[in-house]
Amino acid sequence: MARQAQAAHPPAPVPVTGAQSLVLSLESVGAEVVFGIPGGAILPAYDPLMDSVKVRHILVRHEQGAGHAAEGYATATGKVGVCMATSGPGATNLVTAIADAYMDSVPMVAITGQVASAAIGTDAFQEADIRGITMPITKHNYLVTDAAEIPRVIAEAFHVASTGRPGPVLVDIAKDALQARTTFAWPPQVDLPGYHPVTKPHAKQIREAAKLIAASRQPVLYVGGGVIRAGAHEELAALVEATGIPVVTTLMARGAFPDQHPLHLGMPGMHGSVAAVTALQRADLLITLGARFDDRVTGQLSSFAPDAKVIHADIDPAEIGKNRIADVPIVGDAKAIIAELTAAVSASEAPRPDLSGWVRRTQGWARSYPVGYTPSEDPGALAPQLVIETIGRIAGPEAVYAAGVGQHQMWAAQFIDYERPGSWLNSGGAGTMGYSVPAAMGAKVGQPDRVVWAIDGDGCFQMTNQELATCVINDIPIKVAIINNSSLGMVRQWQSLFYDKRYSNTDLHTSVGSRVPDFVKLADAYGCVGLRCERPEDVEETIRQAMAINDRPVVVDFVVERDAMVWPMVPAGVSNDAIQIARDAAPQWDREDSDAVEQSTDADHSSQTATADQDA
Question: Which residues form the Thiamine pyrophosphate enzyme TPP-binding domain (predicted)?
């Protein structure tokens, strides 16, 4: 009966259990992979899942890993990621990944088992109100106690997760609903009267935006992750071609516009490029596409882009005006908005503004203050930036890079060139340590023909490295670069800068003084290939060795200098005008120049950076 029920979509209702109905529903919505762990309340679903020939289940080692893997799969492919866990602690272990997906607008469906409906609210064994817990961090969530509702709920969950502003949806199913007899028919009747995302922009707002662009002399395209989620990178390229406006791409938008394009100024924000940060500050118009004026980008909000008018386009109307008032708000899908904006600008009979001077200024900032680093005074010390830069050069733009959170995340955003969407995975909004390895695993499952590097810190890696076992057993050959500075690096950097070098509880003992754990031995214990690199002259050969191994995961312990810092930097809570290129060193602007074009040379910049790094 189970195999017969799981055949192609039946023309008439077929008698099944609720658990069979769940699996058939997942097959019918096109789910390919489920990352999960069975347990008592969800166990009925695992029996028919074993017979499915359409849905692959990957048994992870921790539910948080299941959630991040579903995120990585979704981000790399653009499809809905799926994770599954049992009730109580199984479900609560998904919470971090659900919150992460919510902050970064990742389409994900999390399916959890729940105690039998009669026991709900009695503090039964392994009961947790996961629906109540996740209410603030999901687009929507469901508690299913009637088996007949399963097909409709799964169809709705996938629709809600993947449309409008993408995000996570939770489906909590009582154990007795999974065990009950019901019927399955597809497609179910779906009725969501309160859910109608606006995708088509208002023509009047497009016209008003085109007028502002025509009147602007110092515009900047401020591009956020919504452009990637909408698949609007080609439309963005056409808009830039039509207007010649400089572009900045946020941490979540890396790859939305090619890094090598001459109009790309880099990443704005706390650790953004001088050119990107300064262009936003000096702009007279921000054309904001799928970005949310995050505090890491704006710095002190009251001083952000003080002379700029704002066009704010976003599919989520709640984002518009939340942090910065928009002169022209546009609600809709980024792909449609950018296409119509390009058409309106191209069709306008108004004379095109001459942006050549503005472009020269922004490109001058980029030339004078490139994102770079100064090698350590110790010629034998391994610079983390060198490691990441070399990985990007050798693996190339077709690879996928999944970063953890901290210094290595910022260096990966800075020193790898991203030329296509879906090549950069990171936890931007939540800043979740432990994201990298399981996200890379999910990305490799979704993009098996691409090289996938997890660029992780020695702190982040120890939170979810158990998923290496999942990768070995399921033939998921990711490559892991541990940027091992024996510290919680970003916290140590802040302690260096703001707490008089009082390094309270940031020493991890992973390479300085001891190796706890020894990452090479740990990799070997999991069945991976473990490598170690401690000298600059060995970096390229080590990476090429890792690239040549494709039959199992590779873990490389890059033992790097622990005092390297991420620059540029805007300290938290201050104006972006206070950007520093190194410790106690800021860009040197010629105050007498009305255009504020800097007169300092690249040599001056290198000298300042070297002095600052010595101080650090």
Answer: 404-558
